[in-house]
Every structure is written in C-alpha cells, then in structure tokens.
TrEMBL record:
<dbReference type="InterPro" id="IPR001279">
    <property type="entry name" value="Metallo-B-lactamas"/>
</dbReference>
<dbReference type="GO" id="GO:0016787">
    <property type="term" value="F:hydrolase activity"/>
</dbReference>
<dbReference type="Pfam" id="PF13483">
    <property type="entry name" value="Lactamase_B_3"/>
</dbReference>
<feature type="domain" description="Metallo-beta-lactamase">
    <location>
        <begin position="9"/>
        <end position="201"/>
    </location>
</feature>
<dbReference type="InterPro" id="IPR050114">
    <property type="entry name" value="UPF0173_UPF0282_UlaG_hydrolase"/>
</dbReference>
<comment type="similarity">
    <text>Belongs to the UPF0173 family.</text>
</comment>
<keyword id="KW-0378">Hydrolase</keyword>
<dbReference type="InterPro" id="IPR022877">
    <property type="entry name" value="UPF0173"/>
</dbReference>
<protein>
    <recommendedName>
        <fullName>UPF0173 metal-dependent hydrolase DP106_04470</fullName>
    </recommendedName>
</protein>
<dbReference type="InterPro" id="IPR036866">
    <property type="entry name" value="RibonucZ/Hydroxyglut_hydro"/>
</dbReference>
Amino acid sequence: MSFELTYHGHSTWHVTVDDTTLLIDPFFDNAHSELTADDVDTPDYLLLTHGHADHIGHAAQFTEATLVATPEIVSYAGDELGFADAIGMNLGGTVECDDAFVTMVRADHTNGINTDHEYEGGMPAGFVISDTEPTQVADTESTTFYHAGDTALMSEMKDVIGPSLEPDAAAVPIGDHFTMGPMQAAIAVDWLDVEHAFPMHYDTFPPIEVDTDDWEREVQATESEVTTHILDGEESVVLD
C-alpha cells in the first residue's frame, strides 16, 4: 500500500491511498497554494468537515467525485452544488472508500452554511483515514492520517482518537482565534501520540496569521518525540 499526503494550504489536503484519491476541504484561495481548483484533478472522494465557506470552498468544481460528509452537508450539496453521488455519514461511523477507510470523528467548533435558504450543517467533524479497517487489535502494518478539521483542543483526542484509531500522522489547526492556537495544537499532537504532525488553518486571514516557529516550540515543550513538518502549498509527504 502507498499512502501520500499533499498540502494545498489552509485545511485543504489531497490524500492518496494506493489507487484511491481523496480531497479534503477544497479551498484554494489561500496564501500557501498557487493552484486554482481548475488545476486539480477530480478525486475519487471529496470529504467536507463542515459547512463554513473556507471549507466547502471550491467543492462545486468537484461534483463528479463521491461526496463524504454529514447527511446535512450532503443534502445541501445535492440541492445547491449538484452532487449526485454521496455518502452521508455521522460521528463515530466508518465507511469504506475503495482502498481507504474513512472514520468521522468529533470536532469542537461551530457550523453553518451561508445561503439564501435554511440549511443545517449538522455537527462539525474531523476525519481519520486509514488503509485498513479500524479494530481494537493494534495493527502495526496499517497507516493512518487524522485531519482534525476546525476544532478546539478536546479530551477525545487523548481518550478516543489517539488510543483507539491510532493515527500515525495528524494535521491540526494552529491559527488561533477560530480554532486552536499553537499552544493547544501542540498539546493535541502530544495527546494523539503521532509520529508526524502538520500545521494547517493558518495565515489565510489576518486573525489567523501565526508564526509556525511558535507551534514547533510548543511541541518541543511537550517533550513529544513527534516529527513536525511545515509544508508549503503543493508539497507532499509519503507515510511509511
């Protein structure tokens, strides 16, 4: 199995698990990407963590993908964006997406969709993507990536996501103001007990401009053995 992560700035990630491609929260109007949505191939699956405009972003340009989101987001995307193929799921559920398994987990945040019609976004979420189905039996051969979505620090990272879903790598928001800042994001990385950590959701708007060095210093202060990666847009990492 091959497992590759590509960062497109803000919270936008392209994940390839063997022959399956997944795009998370497509929003290319950010400081770390030189691409437009037109430059990006349609993935097999499009994953949306919640309904805010900087996460739904350019979803309408990927309607040939299979959408994976809460039933509320799926309803909105079918009515307003033109998605015909979708998997509506909810917190705690796992769905098989060809070569990948996608588990939806909690995120502590708000949710909403700005349209002329009334739509509920459901609960905001994060996604845990693995090349094997999650079980209680530890699997040292599996590879797992956690996209935390927009979230505050929450004990579920320490009590559930880390020990039960066993992510090898995590992307955590560090921009503060709307999500965790550098200090709480560093604690999250420590609690998750991952080998690799990536910052996201920063520098896109003035309120979330931060120095990634601050986050790395906070991670070091936890004495975690994690390797931090500061990726610019379109940079990739292969997980072993």
